[in-house]
């Protein structure tokens, strides 16, 4: 599962993340400055991912009347798996929102409360379970590890920032947001699925996305569905795990609230 290149990139990401957090602690830059830099990095990251993920294939053009082949054209396309609709990619929207929404806004506080657990846990999970080959010669590899390393840094910064108004109630709002995204992801995964209709009227699934891992385990060998009820058990396990993980990340928030009382 883990190759030498993967371990090296994990180590480099860890070092860069620690150095970044130390610089933030020492220099104490403003929230706006940190998130302005994050916005710029998000744009650079998405541009790099878009052009490095571009693939090309031939498309045939036929005459509508004769059906004869007129020309073959090489067209670019991006696979669905690269679309910015995964949880980590959706953080780009959150980063821009909290940067430009004025402090004190309740929506901003709720977004921040949702961001730091999902950023840290989601990015760590993504770094450990890389779905593509890790290659020193690939721009996608550098983009992938730098972007997710940035999410971890931002998540830790938000988590321990005493000036932000993240309260225990945001634990519940965060779970509500995650639940809503989970429901949407089930529809989205089904919408983006490539399904062939067989002559007998049955369906054959050729490809399906797994946004938020609601359609299956991130590690196939960990949880294999052989019965319909297995999927419901899996979702229940994911829900319990989410409640537990969020609770762990919210411990500093709970302690801070209790200390104030």
Q: Kindly, what is the distance between the CA atoms of the first and last residues, rounded to a whole number of angstroms?
A: 48 Å
The class by helix and strand makeup works out as mainly alpha
Succession of helices and strands: HHEEHHHHEEHH
Let me know the largest β-sheet.
2 strands, antiparallel
Enumerate the spans where pLDDT stays under 50 for 5 or more consecutive residues: none
Gyration radius from CA atoms, angstroms: 22 Å
Number of separate structural domains: 2
Q: Strand order across the biggest sheet? A: 1-2
The percentage of residues in β strands lies in 5-15%
Strand tally, please? 4
Average pLDDT score: 91
Total of DSSP H or I helical runs spanning 4+ residues: 8
What form results from the Cα inertia axes? globular
- Percent helix, as a range, is 55-70%
Describe the structure.
This protein is mainly alpha-helical and about 260 residues long. It folds into two domains: about 1-55 and about 85-165, no CATH class; about 165-260, no CATH class. The chain is built from eight helices and four strands; from the N terminus they run H-H-E-E-H-H-H-H-E-E-H-H. The protein has helices at about 5-25, 30-50, 85-100, 105-130, 140-160, 170-190, 230-250, 250-260; strands at about 55-60, 70-75, 195, 205. The longest helix is centred in the N-terminal third of the chain and has 24 residues, at about 5-25. About 20% of the residues are buried.
């Amino acid at each position: 599962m883990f190759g030498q290149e993967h371990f090296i990139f994990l180590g480099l990401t860890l070092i860069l993340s620690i150095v970044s957090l130390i610089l933030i602690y020492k220099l104490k830059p403003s929230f706006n400055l940190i998130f302005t830099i994050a916005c710029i990095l998000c744009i650079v990251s998405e541009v790099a991912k878009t052009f490095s993920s571009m693939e090309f294939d031939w498309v045939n053009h036929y005459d509508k009347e004769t059906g004869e082949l007129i020309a073959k054209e090489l067209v670019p396309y991006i696979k669905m798996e690269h679309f910015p609709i995964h949880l980590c990619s959706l953080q780009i929207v959150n980063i821009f929102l909290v940067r430009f929404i004025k402090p004190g806004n309740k929506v901003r506080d709720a977004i921040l409360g949702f961001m730091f657990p999902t950023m840290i846990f989601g990015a760590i999970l993504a770094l450990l379970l890389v779905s593509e080959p890790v290659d020193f010669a690939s721009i996608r590899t550098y983009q992938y590890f730098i972007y997710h390393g940035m999410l971890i840094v931002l998540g830790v910064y938000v988590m321990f920032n005493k000036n932000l108004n993240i309260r225990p109630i945001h634990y519940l709002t965060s779970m509500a947001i995650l639940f809503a995204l989970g429901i949407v992801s089930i529809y989205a995964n089904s919408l983006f699925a490539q399904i062939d209709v067989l002559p007998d009227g049955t369906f054959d699934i050729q490809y399906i996305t797994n946004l938020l891992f609601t359609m299956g385990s991130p590690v196939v060998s960990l949880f294999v569905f052989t019965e319909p009820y297995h999927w419901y058990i899996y979702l229940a396990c994911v829900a319990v795990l989410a409640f537990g993980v969020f609770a762990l990340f919210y411990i500093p928030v709970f302690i801070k609230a209790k200390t104030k009382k």
